[in-house]
Design goal:
The protein is an alpha+beta fold and 323 residues long. It has helices spanning 83-90, 98-119, 177-187, 212-225, 262-265; strands at residues 28-31, 36-39, 68-71, 73-81, 125-129, 134-138, 204-208, 244-248, 257-260, 272-282, 286-287, 294-306, 313-316. β11 and β12 (294-306) form a beta hairpin. It is globular and about 90 Å long.
Amino acid sequence: IADTTNLAIQKVFKKDAEIKPAFKSYYNYRTTTDLIEKDSSLSGLSEAEFTDENGEIFEDVPVQGYDASYTQEQTDVLVAFTYLSWKFGIKKRKLDNISKEINRALNRKKERLAAERLTNGFSTSYNHVGKGKNTSITITGGDVLEPWSTAHTREDGGANMNNVVYDGTTYSLPFGYAGYKAAMRTAGLMVDPRGNPMIPRLDTLVCKTNSSVAFKAKEILGAIKSGKIPEEFSNDAAGTPAFKVVEVDYLTQDAYWGMFDSSLALTDEYGFQHIESEGNNLDPVNIVTKTREMQFAGHSLYKQGFNDVARAWVFSAGDSSTS
């Protein structure tokens, strides 16, 4: 930052990327006062049964659901200036909105972590490459499986469930009208813990900002809202409803896309969770007495994870193969 105190340089600009919060559009956000939160579930009943005359009534028993645990994690950022750099550089040139910069840095970490769970969702863990260190992050749910799987186990031991977009022949279809219909088909096979139909109403698409998926989605939406079948010249009406598009800057794969039912995915019971005990906090300025170095820092405490995404989300790698 030597240029900030060089009077031969008339203008010094502060350049950094604006952060557009997006994760709350596809994560359920909630707060906590506990270091560790655990959640579980209990199924409902199956269905009534015929009873013979003078016969015993069928007795049903709810099924215990899966458990998930969320332990708060700390993220921090610190920036330090010599006293002279601060006084004659940062402060004099009015570049001193440090609190805004710290808030942006903390938000970037949240956004990146949230998006990485989608990008790496075909695996049970991944290596998060940070700015100061690498961290191995496990991304399994209550069934101890990755978010996007063809083998999500059922609580009652029934047939496994699949939430990778599938048209009956091909997994991970590219996004298009055929892909959208395959997503609806995949969702149509979902069941609850007792095997009763539990079909999510896919109303939101998530994709990378300005990706081929994002552009195709807007084209398809235009046709649907006009009452036309997308990608055709027929006069028939579209058989699928319109949907909301959430574009995520931190998604890294152009072809990746997913859809979810917002009435399920943005609740405490289903979908991805962001559980926060402390929002972004600006710490008191620390002045090192021996050197007068000025240290500015901020922190946040939260945990991201999930118990059950299979019944709220479907996802595709867009390559016609990944499962």
